[in-house]
Amino acid sequence: MRLHRTHWFVAGILLLLMFGIAACVPAGAEPAADAEEEPMMSMEPAEEQVLRFAPCCSFRWDPATGTGADYYYGAGLLSALTEVVVNPDTGVEEVTCWLCDSFEVSDDGLTYTYNLRQDLKFGKTGNPVTAHDIKYTWERSLRVGKWPLRLFMFIDGAMDLYNENVDTMAGLTVVDDFTFQVQMIQPAPMWNRWSTGTPMAVCEQEQLEAGTAEKHWLEDGGGCAGPFQAESFDPDENLLVLERNPHWPGEPAKLDKLVLQGRLPAETMLIGYENDEFDVVWVAGPILSEILEPDNPLHDELRFWPTQNYLAQVLFTDKPPFDDPKMREAFIKSIDMDEIIEKVMRGRFFKLKTLTGGPYGPYCAHHNCDDRPGLTQDVEGALQAFAESRYQGDPSLVEPIRVYAPPGTTLGDRSLLWQAIAQQVYQVLGVQIELLIKQRTTPEERELANVGSWAHGIQALDPQEAIWPLWHSDGPFNDGYLKHQDPQLDALIEKAQAIQNVEERMEAWKEVEDYMYSLYIMIPTYLDSRYFLVKPWVRNFELGFNSRLLHPDEVWIAEH
C-alpha cells in the first residue's frame, strides 16, 4: 500500500508529538481522566469501494461541450473516464507520455509527432485506441464545443475549422493507425501542456457518433480511453456512474465505482456530506466562508487546490474617461488589492501578481515572482496622475464610470469586489462609480460600460495563451470587446512568441507584461482556487493541473 507524501508528513508529526508528550509526563503519572484520544482512521480498504462525489453545478459530462463552471468545476473529473496523450502531472519541460510511447518535436518547433501505445483499448467496445480517434475527438471538441479554441488556436487550420470554413484541421494528420502529427502555425513550446486539457481527452469515434440531440452518447454506456467506463447516465438527474474499464491495461482501478452527481444546490451538497451521502463535495460562497472559520467542525476536512483561472478587469480605452492614459493610471493606482483580498474576499483567493496567472499560475509556478508585486496602492501617484489628466484633478469633470458586476459566481462575488474598488477610488480621487449589480446584462447595457471583466482559464504554463488571444491586435478574443490596438505591444508579443528557450521566453513575456502595466489598461485582481470537503476515509484524492483528478485508478476508500 502506498502512502501519499502528505500522509507520511502527518505521521511524522504525530510521532514527534507522542514522544514529546511522553518526555514531559512524570514516571507513573496517569493521563487526565477526561482526555479523549482521536480515533485513528483505518488503513484497511473498505469492503465497498465506491466514491460519491458532488462537484458542482449542472454538467453535460462531455469533454467537448463543457463550458464555464461545467469545465472548471466538473469536467476535469472526466479524467476518470478519459485520458490525454501526454502526462499532465509533470514539470514545464519534463512532459512525458501518457497514451503514447514517444513523441518528437522538430527543430523549428512547428511539428509534433506522437507514437501511440498499442495496448490501449476503449471501454465498452474493447476496440484499440488509434490516431483516427484522436483526430476525430479533437476536431469534434472544436467543432461542437467551440470554446476550446484557445487550446487549438496554434494548430494549422484550427481557425478555419472554428469558423466552419472547412471540415477538418489541416495541421492534424494521421500518419498511420498509431502515429499522428500536429503542425503549428508558429512555435508553441508549451503545446504539450495545452494538450492536457479535458477537451483533448480521447474517446472513440464510434461511441461519440452514437450521440444525438435527443440522446446523450453516455446513455448507451459510453467508454473512452481511461481506467473507467460509464455504467449508467441519467441526464434528467445529472447522475453519472462509472465502473472499471475491463479492457484497460495494467492494475485495475481500486474503486469499484465512481458516482458523480451534478446539478445540486450548495446547501443540498453540504447536507449530503454531513449525512455521509457524499464523500467529496465542492463548496463556495457563504458556505465556504463559514467553513473557513477555524472553529467550524468541518474546517479540518476542507481542502483547496489553486487553479489557473484568473479574474482581471479591463478598462475600455475607446471610451471616456479611460481614453485618457493619465486617468487610467490614477484609477488603477487608487486600488488596494491586498486589502480587498484580506477583508472583502477573506483570503478565499490569491492576489494576481502577474497578468499571466498569479502566485500559483503559469509564470510564478516555475519562476521567481518576488519582483512581481501585482497591484499595489499608490495614493500620491494616483493624485498626481489625476491632476495631470485632462480632468485636472476635478471629480466633477469626469464622465460617468459604469460597471456591471454579477453577484456570486464561480470566480467569487464580483459585486463585492467592485463595491470595494468603488469605495477606494472615491476615497482617493473623489470619483464615483455607477454599479449595476446584475447576473446578466443586455448588449445595450454592456455598451454603456467603461469596464469589463475578463475571466480566463489558463491551460498551460506559458503566458502566450494568457496574453496573445486577448491583447494582440489579431488575437481571436480581441474581437471588438477590448478595441485596443497597439503596434508596440503587438511587436513585443510576437517577439516573445518566437523564442523557444523557456527561460529566455519567460523573460520576453516579462517585458510584455511590464509594458502592459505601463499602459494601465488592465486591473489584475485575483486567482481562483477550488475548495472541496473531503472525508478522511478518501485516500489518494488529488486534483492536479487543469483540475484533472490525478491517478483516478489509485483512489480508494478506507474502512470507517
Calculate the mean pLDDT score and round it: 79
Structural class: alpha+beta
Number of helices: 17
Shape: globular
Helix-strand layout with pairing:
Blueprint: H1 5-24, E1 50-54, H2 69-73, E2 100-105, E3 111-116, H3 131-145, H4 149-152, H5 158-162, E4 172-176, E5 179-183, H6 191-194, H7 205-208, E6 228-234, E7 239-244, E8 257-261, H8 266-274, E9 280-283, H9 285-291, E10 302-315, H10 325-333, H11 337-344, E11 350-351, H12 379-388, E12 401-405, H13 414-429, E13 433-437, H14 443-448, E14 451-457, H15 463-471, H16 487-498, H17 502-519, E15 522-534, E16 538-539, E17 556-557
Parallel strand pairs: 1-8, 1-9, 12-13
Antiparallel strand pairs: 2-3, 3-5, 4-5, 6-7, 7-8, 9-15, 10-14, 10-15, 11-15, 16-17
Structure, briefly:
The chain has 560 residues and is an alpha+beta fold.
Would you give an account of this structure?
- Helices cover 29% and strands 18% of the residues.
- The protein is α+β, with helices and mostly antiparallel strands and 560 residues long.
- Among the domains are: 82-207, Dipeptide-binding Protein, Domain 1 (Dipeptide-binding Protein, domain 1, Alpha-Beta Complex), CATH 3.90.76; 305-529, Dipeptide-binding Protein, Domain 3 (Dipeptide-binding Protein, domain 3, Roll).
- The strands form four sheets. Strands 1, 6, 7, 8, 9, 10, 11, 14 and 15 form a nine-stranded mixed β-sheet that branches. Strands 2-3-5-4 form a four-stranded antiparallel β-sheet, covered by helices on one side.
- Helix 10 (325-333) runs antiparallel to helix 12 (379-388) and helix 16 (487-498) packs antiparallel against helix 17.
- Residues 1-38, 67-75 and 357-363 have low confidence and may be disordered.
- Keywords: Signal.
- One of its GO terms (biological process) is peptide transport.
- One of its GO terms (cellular component) is periplasmic space.
- It comes from Caldilineaceae bacterium SB0675_bin_29.
